[in-house]
Amino acid sequence: MRFTASTPARRVALSVTLGAALLSATGCGYINDQQTTRMYSASDGAREDLGPLQLRNVLIVSSGIEGASPELTPDAPGRLIGTVFNTSDKPVSLTFSDGGSTVRLDVPADGELRLEEESTPVELSQSGAIPGGLSPITFTANGQTKEIGVPVLDGTLPEYRDYLPSQAATPTPTSGSGSTSTATPSPASGAGH
User: Residue 178 and residue 191: Cα distance in Å, rounded?
Assistant: First the structure.
């Protein structure tokens, strides 16, 4: 038996029906999200733009253990690492707060600031979350403020072990005093983290 569409309307209807059947059978559809239209960083840390500043691969390294207690706690000290790029021709001050302590860093004009460098260690008295969680950190630059969920990682991955804060270190206090630390590093050369 031979099937023929004798009119143009039947040919169109047949084409649409076959096309829909093929798309349904293959799982394709025009209403599905396209992953290539979403911006993301293929890294362990957070990515955010804040005015002329670009925060890349920002994360907190913490053992999650405070003192001699074997249990994980968000109160354990942590160290913020990552790279901040300044795309403007003027230096920009970046301030961030973990809820109690505030740290201000000066990012050089058309430069970058690598937080994992020894000259600019940013240690937090509390990581804000246990390893595997997200710690809310408020970043401010040029009058813009954003709260970012910064991932907290431990020393399981060897590339982060050297950045674990030492238990002997005295981190910036986060209790009611609202202390402020300032670091003015020199521009770093090389690629960002």
Answer: 34
